Each structure stands twice: as C-alpha cells, then as structure tokens.
Amino acid sequence: MGPLGGRVAFITGGEGSIGMATARRLVADDAKVVLVGIEEEGLRAGVAELGADAACHVVADVADAAQVAAAVRVAVARHGGLDIVFSNAGISGVIAPVAEYPDDVFDRVLAVHVRRRGGPGGAIPRRGRQFVHHRQHGGGRRRHEHLTRRPARSP
After folding, report:
1. Three-class SS of residue 27?
2. Deepest in the core among 50, 91, 93, 137, taking most CB within 10 A?
3. Neighbouring C-alpha atoms within 13 Å toward the C-beta of 13
4. At what angle do helices 123-136 and 65-79 cross, to 10 degrees?
C-alpha cells in the first residue's frame, strides 16, 4: 500500500489539467479521488483514465453552496469521509481594460474564487466546510502539505 492508502481526496476543478495532474499523483500513492467540476465530459474522462475503483466524479459549481454540500455528501457516501481537499477550481474571466470589463463576468469570477451567490462563500471558505465534516467524523487536524517532496540539500 502506498503512502496515501485509504485516504480520500476531494478535488475541485477536477476536470482541468492541474486537477487531473493532482489526481494522478494521489492515485499513484493509493488515494481515492473525487473529481468535482462543472464539465461532466472532462470529469468522466478523468474517471475513465484513473479507473472507477480509484475515482468518481460529481458535477458541481463551487460558487453554489448547495452543490458543494451535495458533492461532499456523495464523497462521504461512497468513501465514508474526506481526508484531503484540493481547492483548485477557478476561472480566468476575460482579458479587457477595467472600464470595459463585463459586470456579469466579474461577478462570476468573484463567485467562483471568493464568494457564493447571496453572501460570503466561494471555493476558498467552502474548503473549511469540507474539513469540518472530516473533523466531526474522527479526522485529524487540518494540514496543508506539498504533493511532492524534495530531498534536503546537503550543506
């Protein structure tokens, strides 16, 4: 069993290149992954690549608190809990001068990255809610670790 055997990772933006690279690494270390995102075709392709025993997917928009809560419930129902959350979902919006930036695009970028519709939230604070579930079900304290380790340099 690898170093992450028995661990479950919840990856937002799971259909993107960074989300999939992270999922590949975690699965290589024997973790199970839940890919979360808004593009179902990409999520399905990710599960097909990683294997149904190692991965599942949930279509959810991180700007919507109810969808994130539902995705967490799916992960918990399938795997019994969460150990790792990789809050990776994000959008870039458009490239335009500030005076010409479309209001609806600006609102969407903020909703995904900072807040949810109707109040505070978004991808960053919602990560804490996923860890709250982890703690309430016997998990350890919240930690952030690098996915790759480099050997210490000799003096």
Report:
1. helix
2. 50
3. 20
4. 30
Encoded tokens for 86: 């990789």
Task: Please give the Cα distance from 113 to 123 (Å, whole number).
Answer: 6
pLDDT band at 115 (very low <50, low <70, confident <90, very high): low
What SS3 class is residue 119? strand
Question: Would you tell me how many other CB atoms lie within 10 Å of the CB of residue 42?
Answer: 19
pTM of the shown model: 0.73
Q: Distance between CA atoms of 102 and 154, rounded to whole angstroms?
A: 52
Q: Which domains does the chain have, with CATH numbers?
A: 8-136 (3.40.50.720)
């979360």: which residue's tokens? 36
